[in-house]
């Protein structure tokens, strides 16, 4: 549809506010982090805090929203870490997974469904049943193919166990996927491939396994992506892969770690992850009814979630449980380089949360969210997160309510043009921010920028109104002015809850409002005579509880 008559276009947009486009029920999925180590700020800056921001925004608008993630226990990176540490994969998955869950909780990320395969005795059975559905597809065959192998470790090299250079972009790459260009590969195709455990150059040997012909579902995949909401970077990658022809995908690995398939084989970790996604989505649908699914993911996982996951769903007859919207992110760098655990080039999430508190950490990561681009944070800034301009300005503005009177909210009196326009501004800004939390148009960076502008506008309103409030003949106008200020605090609490939940909940409680912040389409004033329980929300710039989720 092409709009050439601007008044008609504006009228249509006015009749279709952003929140009317939201589903009654939304499930927000995040790729489960691999439990082979702790989370650093680079991890949190990707999908995890941004997805929580969406869930909170949806709930504040009265929508049913659930957050689904877990720990990717069966990844080869867990098995590789166990070998290097001289322990078992289940011990690594359990200990590191517990720490990851604790970090997410400390960051105010509320998870409603948590998948932990290594600790779920029924996981393997459920996943094998789904694999049986996939295996029944004519696109799945059992074949013997050459595979990278380490004769020293007597180890089949795949994913975390293989290291070389990508044949497409020449960047350093592990087996099966290149993080730099997002293209899939087979470990044996890497240039200079060697064993990650001992450094021995790889040889090849034949291995028998199940293989999935991805190209058999190319047309169905194209149609699915056409009707789904996808970010440009993901769309470019998948369309290029489809145009080049999708490679076959190996569904089983020669490994003792993962869902056991017998004969020394285990389900491929990424296939396990995709089937776990489908298992959770189907279960949520059965328990709570149909839901629109939004998937937050890192660009480096695009192939697995935008190609492998849909094809497995098509093969298993579970296409109705696929994401309707993909919300991707690139990488947050520390300085000019990627965060690196192995090189110690990282700022650990637990350390940052302990030093600055969850509100400041969340705000910094949402402000510099790597949406559509690589973003950077310096070590100096990472150590001064409470100095964020929005963090400081919001505290200062809220603290200023202590000087406005006895804490009693007046009813409105006479209105000036400035009052009317400020009230209009509160509603228009809310609508603008509503648009930025639509999964199809999601922008954490844009949201923070607009919220910062909102606080500046509220502070400016106070500065100009304070003079008028001292004029005896404008007593009725002063009542309206004060009522608008308290209303602005209510609006801020609801709009800030997805970003800084701790501060927002303290402001909401201070205003005498029940529960968690509620986002109104057209803002109603606080009842006349409402008395705030404290002169102002807590203003100390020290770590505080992140609040309810």
TrEMBL record:
It catalyses: tRNA(Met) + L-methionine + ATP = L-methionyl-tRNA(Met) + AMP + diphosphate. PROSITE patterns: AA_TRNA_LIGASE_I (PS00178). Signal peptide: none annotated. It holds the Pfam family tRNA-synt_1g. The keyword Cytoplasm applies. SUPFAM superfamilies: Anticodon-binding domain of a subclass of class I aminoacyl-tRNA synthetases, Nucleotidylyl transferase. The keyword ATP-binding applies. Keywords: Aminoacyl-tRNA synthetase, ATP-binding, Cytoplasm, Ligase, Nucleotide-binding, Protein biosynthesis. Residues 27-380 form the Methionyl/Leucyl tRNA synthetase domain. It comes from the Bacteria. Belongs to the class-I aminoacyl-tRNA synthetase family. MetG type 1 subfamily. This is Methionyl/Leucyl tRNA synthetase domain-containing protein.
């Amino acid at each position: 549809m092409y709009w050439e008559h601007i008044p008609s276009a504006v009228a249509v947009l006015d009749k279709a506010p952003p929140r009317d486009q939201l589903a009654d029920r939304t499930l927000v999925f995040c790729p489960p982090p691999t439990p082979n180590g702790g989370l650093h700020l680079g991890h949190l800056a990707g999908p995890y805090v941004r997805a929580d921001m969406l869930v909170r925004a949806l709930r504040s608008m009265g929508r049913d929203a659930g957050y689904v993630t877990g720990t990717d226990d069966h990844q080869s990176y867990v098995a590789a870490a166990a070998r290097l540490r001289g322990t078992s994969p289940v011990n690594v998955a359990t200990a590191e997974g517990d720490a990851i869950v604790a970090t997410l909780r400390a960051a105010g990320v509320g998870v409603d469904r948590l998948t932990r395969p290594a600790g779920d005795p029924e996981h393997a059975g459920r996943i094998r049943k789904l694999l049986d559905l996939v295996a029944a597809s004519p696109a799945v065959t059992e074949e013997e193919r050459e595979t990278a192998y380490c004769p020293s470790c007597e180890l089949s090299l795949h994913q975390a166990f293989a290291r070389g250079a990508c044949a497409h972009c020449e960047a350093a790459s592990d087996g099966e996927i290149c993080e730099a260009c997002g293209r899939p590969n087979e470990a044996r195709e890497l240039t200079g491939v060697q064993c990650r455990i001992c450094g021995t150059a790889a040889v090849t040997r034949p291995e028998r396994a199940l293989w999935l012909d991805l190209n058999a579902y190319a047309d169905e995949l194209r149609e699915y992506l056409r009707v789904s909401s996808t970010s440009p970077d993901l769309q470019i990658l998948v369309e290029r892969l489809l145009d080049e022809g999708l490679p076959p995908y190996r569904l089983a690995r020669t490994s003792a770690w993962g869902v056991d398939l017998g004969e020394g084989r285990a389900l491929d970790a990424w296939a396990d992850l995709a089937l776990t996604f489908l298992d959770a989505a189907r279960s949520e649908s059965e328990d709570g009814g149909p839901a629109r699914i939004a998937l937050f993911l890192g660009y480096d996982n695009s192939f697995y979630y935008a190609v492998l996951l849909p094809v497995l769903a098509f093969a298993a007859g579970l296409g109705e449980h696929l994401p309707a919207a993909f919300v991707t992110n690139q990488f947050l760098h520390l300085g000019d380089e990627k965060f690196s655990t192995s090189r110690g080039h990282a700022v650990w999430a637990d350390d940052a949360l302990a030093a600055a508190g969850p509100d400041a950490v969340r705000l910094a990561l949402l402000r510099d969210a790597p949406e559509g681009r690589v973003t950077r944070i310096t070590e100096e800034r990472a150590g001064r997160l409470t100095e964020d301009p929005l963090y400081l300005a919001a505290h200062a503005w809220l603290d200023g309510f202590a000087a406005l009177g006895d804490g009693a909210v007046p009813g409105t009196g006479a209105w000036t043009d400035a009052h009317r326009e400020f009230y209009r501004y509160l509603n228009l800004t809310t609508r603008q921010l509503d648009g930025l939390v639509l999964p199809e148009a999601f922008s954490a960076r844009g949201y923070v920028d607009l919220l910062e502008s909102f606080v500046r506008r509220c502070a400016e309103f106070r500065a100009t109104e304070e003079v008028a409030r001292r004029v005896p003949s404008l007593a009725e106008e002063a009542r309206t002015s004060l009522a608008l200020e308290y209303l602005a605090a209510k609006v801020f609490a609801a709009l800030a809850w997805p970003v800084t939940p701790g501060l927002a909940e303290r402001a909401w409680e201070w205003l005498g409002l029940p529960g968690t912040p509620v986002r109104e389409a057209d803002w109603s004033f606080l009842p006349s005579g409402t008395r705030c329980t404290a002169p102002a929300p807590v203003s100390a710039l020290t770590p505080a509880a992140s609040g309810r989720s």
